[in-house]
Design goal:
alpha+beta; 3-stranded antiparallel β-sheet; about 170 residues; globular
């Protein structure tokens, strides 16, 4: 999951969106982008405190420059290399499968977790929305905002999932 802390008033954010979309194409079977807006019309109030508490964000937009050794230069190749390193250095202990459907106003979400190691886990499920058109500094007045975190379907601190045996599937 590639978190991106952004805002509509950020002039540099459209170029980072383009870079992350290229990274996502490269890692499409292994990554999802989530746009977390702050201090704008797409902001989700619970996300701001969550981002500050979990990631120690200083404001919006925010980027953890430690990912590239403290450099502020963020290229597609830098991010692709980082994601590739993470995939091979820190193999996943879980696999996630999610399917959602909307019937009128009823949203149904089916979540499946493959859990390699018995333990307690916390799962947070957020609704991401694509195709939101609106202003974006550095973009246009009709810029398409994608992968925007819009609604928490669970508590922001996550729901506890306890698995007592290795290699279990939880739904």
């Amino acid at each position: 999951l590639l978190y991106r802390f952004t805002a509509t008033w950020c002039a540099y954010c459209p170029s980072m969106t383009t870079a992350l979309e290229k990274v996502n194409d490269y890692t499409k079977d292994h990554s999802v982008i989530m746009q977390i807006h702050g201090n704008d019309e797409f902001a989700m109030s619970a996300m701001s405190s969550w981002a500050t508490d979990i990631y120690n964000t200083q404001g919006y937009p925010y980027c953890d420059y430690s990912l590239t050794g403290g450099s502020t230069k963020r290229t597609v190749n830098d991010i692709q290399r980082f994601v590739k390193d993470v995939l091979y250095t820190y193999p996943a202990k879980t696999g996630i499968e999610l399917e959602s459907s909307l019937d009128g106003t009823r949203l149904t979400v089916d979540l499946g977790l493959y859990i390699k190691e018995a333990d307690s886990y916390r799962v947070t499920v957020l609704l991401l929305e694509d195709g939101i058109y609106g202003y974006q500094n550095g973009g246009s007045n009709n810029y398409e905002h994608k992968d925007v975190a819009r609604l928490a379907l669970t508590s922001m601190s996550g729901e506890t999932v306890r698995i007592s045996e290795d290699n279990q599937i939880w739904t």
